[in-house]
Write a structure and sequence with these properties.
The chain is an alpha/beta fold. 49% of the residues lie in helices and 14% in strands. Helix 7 packs across helix 12, helix 11 crosses helix 12 and helix 12 runs parallel beside helix 13. Pfam families: Dimerisation, Methyltransf_2.
């Protein structure tokens, strides 16, 4: 009898759970239908220079001030700001008519209000840590990455993703543009600059975190070659933090041709599949995920040949996908990056620890260590000959 009485309750609980899932699905489906809107409006905010205008002003700006500075239609700009405030990218701060606006910049963040009540009469727009990431300049800027990933060139590849999954051997980017990302970038200077700027803004965020959280990887080094180092931002940050290290920025000729001179850094052009400049250690950040296992092994072998057998090391800074979900919200970033690799490269991918173990050992390294760095998606893998 007791069992018969409990079963209907279990069925009822299940039905309630299903109802909640169905209700949530009706909310979530709109996010997938119009998910592109958020990225498009954020891109718009970068192109308009909204964050820079508020930062240069020195404090919150009214709609009138902001639209005048940016030379924008105030009614359209108001709607853009309402959208961005709702997503907590900017915040709205109340002002009184007899209050000096510049004094309001000292108000605590708790004074931010519900965006539904924002109007151009009683509130001003203020910066947040997130909005400062949309500034084109600055240590935390991710503007170039957003502009690059949301450029027509990169977006075009996504429309061929399903065809690729269904067995089309031509990668999505190549299907969209007739050649792979690397050849396209080499032949199109604007995209080359955009790509290098995007990698540089990531380096500005990632490398200081590596230097702070894993400084031991640079101990005992007198020289370091950054393989696929782009415009030299990453190696310059390392050399600035560790001035005893001679830095070598190594990349393809068309990349090195536009790289600016940096103190303590020598730019060298070449092909990492052929040879890598000699140094105490090789540094690889966001390079190996662009390639299939076979290419990764080949690159790592060339790096192993370039470093001393005694005390040499290869420093890999890449995502390590945790199957069990131990990385929290950053795991989702890693999974997103894996989809980006599928869309924009031939056989590139983000790797699990088991997959990293395979390519490192197949390249002839005897031991390696892995260290997760707080608050960034990438980990530091140090491999030894």
């Amino acid at each position: 009898m007791e069992k018969a009485q409990r079963e209907p309750l279990l069925v009822l609980d299940k039905n309630e759970e299903e109802k909640e899932e169905e209700l949530q699905a009706q909310v979530d489906i709109w996010r997938y239908a119009f998910g592109f809107v958020e990225q498009a409006v954020v891109k718009c905010a970068i192109e308009l220079g909204i964050a820079e205008a508020i930062e240069s002003h020195g404090g919150p700006m009214t709609l009138s001030q902001l639209s005048s500075t940016l030379k924008c239609d105030p009614s359209l700009l108001n709607r853009i700001m309402r959208f961005l405030i709702h997503r907590k990218i900017f915040k709205a701060i109340p002002i009184s008519q007899d209050q000096d606006l510049l004094r309001s910049k000292n108000l605590p963040s708790s004074t931010a209000v519900n965006p539904a009540f924002v109007s151009h009469h009683g509130y001003a727009y203020a910066q947040t840590p997130l909005s400062r990431c949309l500034m084109r300049k600055g240590r935390q800027s991710m503007a170039a990455m957003i502009l690059m990933e949301n450029s027509p060139v990169m977006l075009a590849a996504w429309h061929s993703l399903s065809a690729h999954v269904q067995g089309n051997d031509i990668p999505p980017f190549e299907l969209a543009h007739g050649e792979d990302l690397w050849h396209y970038t080499a032949e199109n200077i604007d995209h080359n600059n955009l790509f290098n700027d995007a990698m540089a803004c990531d380096a500005n965020v990632t490398v200081p975190a590596v230097v702070k959280g894993c400084s031991e990887v640079f101990d005992g080094l007198t020289s370091l070659v950054d393989v696929g180092g782009g415009n030299g931002t990453a190696i310059h940050i390392v050399v600035k933090a560790c001035p005893w290290i001679r830095g070598i920025n190594f990349d393809l000729p068309h990349v090195i041709a536009v790289a600016s001179q940096r103190d303590g850094v020598e730019h060298v052009a070449g092909d990492m599949f052929v040879s890598v400049p000699k140094a105490d250690a090789a540094f690889l950040m966001w390079v190996l995920h662009d390639w299939a296992d076979e290419e990764c092994i080949q690159i790592l072998k060339k790096c192993r040949e370039a470093i001393p057998k005694e005390n040499g090391r290869v420093i890999i800074v890449e995502a390590v996908i945790e199957e069990g979900g131990k990385q929290g919200s950053l795991k989702d970033v890693g999974l997103v990056l894996d989809m980006v690799m599928m869309a924009h490269t031939h056989l590139g991918k983000e790797r699990t620890l088991e997959e990293w173990d395979y390519v490192i050992k197949m390249a002839g390294f005897t031991t390696y260590s892995v260290k997760h760095i707080p608050n960034i998606v990438k980990s530091v893998i140090m491999a030894f000959p």
